[in-house]
Design goal:
With 132 residues, this protein is mainly alpha-helical. It contains six helices and no strands. The mean pLDDT is 87.
């Protein structure tokens, strides 16, 4: 599948996810909604992505570490969505690629061009304008 189509479908799925999340947490506890969201996610993961052959242990470890980080981030995001207008937490959370850029520089020593730093600056200005 073309990456543009996959990215667009991902954005659409996340838009519905945020909408359903906001509807659910407007009446129910974010913890209750989070629990069943996780159950739904794990159902899909187990049915669709179960590996035919177990990967090597380091791959399992990196996957588990990423999953723990995702769940922690997901939990804080759920908490924020349950207590603010949807647009604010979604916009703030959408800035995570900036953090990925910085972390890749610090831990992987990846070069960051001035264009990317310009993009970071523009994104930060946009974030300020949205949450202001």
């Amino acid at each position: 599948m073309n990456w543009i189509i996959a990215s667009g479908l991902s954005a659409l799925a996340y838009a519905f996810w945020a909408l359903f999340w906001r509807i659910g947490t407007s009446t129910y506890s974010w913890r209750d909604v989070l629990f069943f969201a996780a159950v739904g996610e794990m159902s899909i993961v187990l049915m669709v992505f179960w590996p035919a052959k177990m990967p090597p242990l380091p791959a399992i470890g990196w996957g588990l570490a990423a999953g723990v980080c995702a769940m922690v981030g997901y939990s804080f995001f759920a908490m924020a969505l349950g207590s603010a207008r949807s647009s604010l937490p979604v916009v703030v959370m959408s800035m995570y690629p900036i953090l990925v850029l910085v972390l890749s520089r610090v831990f992987l020593h990846e070069a960051i061009s001035w264009e990317k730093w310009l993009g970071v600056g523009l994104a930060m200005m946009a974030l300020y304008l949205v949450v202001k």
